[in-house]
Design goal:
Layout lengths: L1 H31 L5 E2 L2 E3 L5 E3 L2 E2 L23 H7 L9 H7 L3 E3 L6 H4 L4 H7 L5 E3 L1 H6 L2 H5 L5 H23 L2 H15 L5
Parallel strand pairs: 5-6
Antiparallel strand pairs: 1-4, 2-3
Length: 201
Amino acid sequence: MLKRLFDIILSSVALIILSPLFVIVGILIKLDSSGPVFYRGVRIGRYRKPFKIYKFRTMVANAEQIGPASTAADDPRLTKIGRNFIKRYNLDELPQFINVLKGDMSIVGPRPEVSEVVALYPEEERASVLSVRPGITDWATLWIRDEGERLKGSSNPHQTYLEEIWPKKRRLQMKYIDNHSIWVDIKIMALTLKTHLFDRF
């Protein structure tokens, strides 16, 4: 209950503070390409409940239907504003504060996956991961920093993700699940701000 209260307060404050930025990014997306401002792909949440995740759209409309689930930095489906601005500063993830406020996600927790990836977890591990709300950031987010750059140049980005990124990502997810607390969450949030925002300017 304390974690949920923490999420509600922080996500509400974040959405109020970030609202002018949301307007600016939304206008830039609409000027750059046709399609919606938000991408709303289906992810699997706590207790295996599917939900639609909010992200700023960084790719052409209907990108999921014309390419792999994982996105490399050189993916041709990326729009100009998506590649050069939104992805560069991780702005695409900010609308997930809406998911946090709705209760689909937490600010800190294992990153949510698509159903095809969730099905690949060993059963016991999958049960642990899906016993908590997925999050915007966790230890794996801090480790990976820029997934798109790691996948750049791959002929099969999704397979590269599963072979080279996902195994360690899973271990870091379990590290969080086995040792999470409010103080751990605060530490991860502080490190995320430093790594994914301040260090990029």
